[in-house]
Structures are given as C-alpha cells and as structure tokens.
Design brief:
Elements lengths: L13 H18 L3 H4 L3 E10 L6 E5 L1 H15 L2 E5 L7 E5 L2 E11 L3 E10 L2 E15 L25 H10 L7 E4 L3 H12 L4 E5 L6 H4 L31 H14 L3 E4 L2 E8 L4 E7 L5 E4 L3 E4 L21 E4 L13 E5 L3 H12 L3 E6 L4 E4 L16 H8 L4 H18 L1 H10 L11 H9 L3 E4 L2 H6 L4 E4 L3 E5 L2 E4 L4 E3 L2 E4 L6 H9 L1 H7 L23 E3 L4 H19 L5
Parallel strand pairs: 1-7, 8-9, 8-14, 9-10, 14-25, 15-24, 16-17, 16-24, 17-20, 18-19
Antiparallel strand pairs: 1-2, 3-5, 4-5, 5-6, 6-7, 11-12, 12-13, 21-22, 22-23
Helix pairs in contact: 5-16, 14-15
Length: about 600
C-alpha cells in the first residue's frame, strides 16, 4: 500500500526552544513551590510585575531572592499552572530592550480562579534565567466578558411584540427607579467610560454621573485649538477602535463626540448634568450613601457598594495669590476656563506657567492677534511632538494593540526609569537645535530630576513639560514674549511691574498654574477622615507604582480610575476584574 509522503515538521526556532525550556522548569518548580527551587530561574537583577494573577493587586518585585520568595508564598493560593507559549500572539523573538539583548515571549497560564497572560524575557546570553517576568489576570472562569462568541443573544431586544423594545429597556435601565447601582462612577471622561464598558461586559451594574450637560463635554469645553498630543493608534478605547480614516492627532471636539457615541454604543448608563454633592461610607451595610443633584434639580441618595472617582488626575484649579494681584484692572482666569483669544484681539496678555496648557493658550492668543507673553516660574521640559514625544510609543509599531499593551505593562519602576532615560538621550539629539535656541532666548530648561523627561513628570506631578506644536518657535522668534517670574516686583493696575521699574502691560492674565491634588478633591468630597485614610493619589508610592490607582485602597469600596486614554484602556480591565471578583465573593 502506498502512503502519502509526510511533510517535514517546521523547525522549532531557538527562541521558542529557550522559552519552552524555561517554562518547563517553572512549571516543575511550581508543583511544590520552594523559594530555593525558584531562585535559579531568575537573574540577580530580575523584575516581576503582577497584575492580580498572583497578588490580587498591582505588585512589583525586584531581584531573584524577592521574586522567588513571593512566588513561593502566593502559589498555594493562586495555583498558577500550565505556563505556556501563546499560540495566537506575537511569537518568541529576539529583542533589544533597554540596551539589553533578550529573548521575549508572550505566555499564557491558568490560575485557581481564571486565566492569565504575561511576558517572559530571558537574557540572550544566559537563557536559563529570566530578566523580566510579567503575569496578568485576563478573565475569571465562569465570569468571562460577554464579547465575541459569548455576546448576548438578541431575544430580549428584538421582536418583543407587545413588550418593551431595546430603547424602552435602555430608558428604564438608566433611570434606576427600581434598584441601586452596584458601582457609582464619578466622571464620564475616558476613565469612567472605559471602566463602565468593562464592567458591563462582566455583568456588573454601573452608573456614571457627570456634571456636564453631555458626555464628551469634558473635552468639548476645553480651549478652542486643542488636539491630542499623541497619535491616534495608541489611544483606542476598549472594544471600539477609532476609524482608520481619522486624523493622526484627534481634535478635542471629535474626541468629545466619539465619547458620546461610545457611551451609546456600549450601552453605558450615564446621568449627565448630575453633581456629586456629598457622600459617606456605612461600615455596617458596606455601602456608600452618595447624594446626587440631578439635571432637573431633584436630589437622590444612591447606595452603591463601590464608588469610583474617575474625574481625572487634575480636579480643582489652583489659583495662586500673587503680590498686587488685587490691584490688577484686567481680567484674570485659570487656563481651565480659557476657550480662545478672539475677545482680546489687539490687546496684551500674560500667561503664568510654561507647561503644555500655558504654551497652547499663548499660541492661541498670538494667533488671534494678541500680544502674549509667558511668565516662567520654574524650569520646564520641552519636547517636539514628532519625532521626540513619539519615541515613547514606538513599541506600538511592533504588533497588535493587545500584545503591545501587555508588553507595555511588564515594566517595573527601575525599568521604566531606565527606558525613559534612554528615550530622553535620543530626544535631546533630535531636539538639539530647538533646545539650544530656547536656552539662548532665556528659557529655563530641564530634563527632569533624573533625566527621564516629560513622561515621568506626568506620572510624578502631572505637569512641568510642553509637547511642542509650534509655540516654541514663536518664543524663539520673539513673537511670543518670555518673562521670568523673579523679574516681577508685583502686579499693578495695567500689568506686571518689574524690579527694574518698567511695566509689562496686560489686559488679561491667564493662570496656567495646575490643579490641587486628587487627595484634596477627596477631602472636599468625602471628608478629612477618608482623605487621610487613603493618602497619596497619583505619583509613585514606595513600590514604584502609581499611588492608589486602579487597585483597592485603604478605604473599603473606594477606587480611583485616571490617566491617559492608553492607561484607561489597559487598567480599566484590571479594576473591573477586582470589582467583579468582590461582587461574586471570590475576593474579600
């Protein structure tokens, strides 16, 4: 009998073989976990970042000793097993990360409660040891997201003769006349919408309240010329990518309209024109008492089990008390209230600050025929949008968005610092002429406290930098003025009196002076005790993670959701999984 000739098997790549051998050793060591058996798997300078899979929080670990001990300690509860190479994502490959040659792979694994994915990065010259190990919970078994093949049927919505159709049900669902939301989210920006969309797919009842009249107004109402400062391909929201026809940098109104469409398409429950007026936590019932003033003036007390503040890193505008400001006869406003400079055409304006908002306001004033000058109080970082600022997102050219998101979350604080330092070295090369010209003009310039540039400034303090879209050139040419704050004696009726006796005339003073911390917002919303219990919000904590973001806090039932569109897309998943696990009794 003739048999068909067997085709030879495709050769296994050396990278895949190295990763598989390491995973086999890991699986074996986890069968009876002992730190001594796990330690040889990791390089002395190794990093493990866990997102819920083992620790039910966002937890970084550094060094073979600490990683081995933590894995051994958590393994009996997590039961991580069957670590394997993902067959549906980027294959194992050689990469250079932070100047280090490595073998990188996307992995999958199972836990006692669900399924996870992660990253393994082996040292290329020592492939028996991992340099980077990353584990992230993807889903809870039995409580998977209702997407794709798991999407709900159409029966409740269509052909319901004599009963409520889809719109009827949506109207009733949003009214909350017969129930309380399990989760109340304050803020309908990218943070609140991303989380609400995730929770809905997990079957958790969530309501967003927002003080604005329409979803998306938090972008529409910003200054007239605003567009995003990073490119569209990194900014997609969960489940609904932006259309491929859209511009590289999304204008604010376009984004605002998209948010409104997103809330409709994702069937998110939102009360617009609704203001949070106060709240307290009931320890006995483990629910919140939240007072909400609705758009029609009526008030209602809601009793959610979870309260999520998703109203941004920046909350309450900070207006410093400047010497002589009470004598100034012109108009004073915070940049938060600035829309455009058309009302001041032919007049003079001063803008206090040299961050992104200050530069954009000054450029808008200049374009409207206003003689505008920036007042610089401290040094700032200036970066060209393209090519320099785009360097921080170069990872997203390597593969599918989901894979790049996973790779991006693998870095612990030391790796993040080193990565930004390397990027800044290249940025300085790209922007050398720009930087030199600004310094000659008298601009105080810096690269951040440890030469990590603008991105770490954003994480640490939420400002102190400018992504240049044209204003730097105007400053260099003298078309936008530059004044150092220490040159000012005080403000007088017609402007700023300088220490040399001259006066810089002004009809308008725009305070681009930032915002109070989120902790101050919590203090005003929920009281001193809750604010003190929670502590720092945003900025890095002792472990090098963003303080109290996207994870449980010291106050039961209180969560914080904030960040860029990228961060909200990524971390909304993990916050939603924690809430779902608590709701189902899987997590205490």
């Amino acid at each position: 009998m003739n048999h068909p000739e067997r085709l030879p098997l495709a050769p296994v790549s050396p990278e895949r073989e190295a990763i598989q051998q390491w995973l086999d050793r890991l699986n074996h060591a986890l069968d009876s976990p002992k730190a001594a058996d796990l330690r040889p798997l990791f390089a002395s300078d190794s990093h493990w970042r866990d997102l819920l899979a083992y620790t039910w929080t966002i937890a970084p670990h550094h060094g073979a000793e600490q990683i081995a001990e933590a894995l051994a300690r958590h393994q009996p509860q997590a039961l991580g097993r069957h670590f394997r190479i993902s067959e549906t994502r980027l294959p194992p490959r050689r990469v250079v990360r932070l100047g280090t040659q490595a073998i990188e792979a996307i992995i999958e694994f199972d836990t006692m409660l669900g399924k996870g994915s992660g990253i393994v990065r082996l040292l290329a010259d020592q492939p028996d040891q991992a340099w980077v190990f990353h584990t992230a919970l993807d889903e809870l078994t039995g409580y998977e997201e209702r997407t794709g093949k798991r999407r709900p049927g159409t029966e409740p919505y269509s052909r319901n003769f004599g009963g409520d159709n889809w719109q009827d049900q949506r109207d009733k669902n949003q009214a909350y006349s017969d129930r309380e939301p399990a989760v109340l989210i304050v803020g309908a920006g990218q943070a609140g919408l991303s989380l609400a969309a995730r929770l809905r797919q997990l079957g958790v009842d969530a309501l967003i309240i927002d003080k604005h009249e329409r979803v998306g107004d938090n972008w529409r109402k910003r200054y007239h010329s605003l567009s995003l400062h990073n490119q569209i391909h990194v900014n997609h929201l969960p489940y609904m990518p932006f259309p491929p026809t859209w511009p590289k940098y999304i204008p604010k109104d376009m984004l605002g309209h998209w948010f409104e469409s997103y809330a409709w398409a994702m069937e998110i429950n939102v009360w617009c024109g609704a203001e949070f007026t106060g709240g307290s936590y009931d320890e006995a019932t483990r629910t919140w008492n939240v007072m909400v003033r609705k758009a029609d003036g009526s008030e209602r007390t809601l009793h959610p089990r979870h309260l999520v503040l998703a109203n941004g890193v920046s909350g309450i505008a900070r207006m410093p008390d400047l010497p002589g400001l009470q004598d100034f006869a012109g108009e004073v406003m915070h940049s938060d209230s600035f829309k455009n400079g058309s009302r001041w055409r032919g007049k003079n304006a001063l803008v206090l600050g040299t961050g992104t908002s200050a530069h954009d306001v000054a450029q808008d004033l200049h374009s409207n025929g206003v003689q505008a000058s920036l007042i610089q109080r401290g040094s700032s970082t200036v970066v060209s949008i393209d090519p320099s600022a785009a360097l921080n997102y170069s990872l997203y050219a390597e593969g599918p968005l989901e894979d790049c998101d996973l790779i991006a979350t693998a870095a612990t604080y030391p790796l993040r610092v080193r990565g930004y330092q390397l990027a800044v070295e290249r940025m300085v090369e790209f922007d050398k002429d720009l930087i030199d010209a600004l310094i000659r003009r008298g601009f105080k310039y810096d690269l951040g406290e440890d030469k990590t540039g603008h991105q770490m400034k954003y994480f640490r303090r939420g400002g102190g930098y400018y992504l240049d879209c044209g204003c730097s050139g105007l400053i260099i040419k003298g078309e936008v003025g530059l004044l150092q704050y220490d040159q000012i004696e005080r403000f007088v009726a017609d402007g700023a009196l300088l220490k040399d006796g001259s006066t810089v005339p002004a009809d308008l003073l725009v305070m681009a002076t930032g915002y109070y911390s989120q902790q101050e917002l919590v203090r005003r919303m929920l009281g001193d005790a809750v604010a003190s219990r929670v502590g720092q919000i945003w900025g890095f904590d002792a472990e090098g993670e963003l303080a109290n973001m996207w994870k449980r806090t010291a106050q039961d039932g209180l969560w914080f959701m904030a960040g860029s569109l990228i961060q909200c897309r990524i971390y909304s998943k993990y916050l939603a999984l924690q809430i779902k696990a608590i709701e189902e009794g899987l997590l205490q």
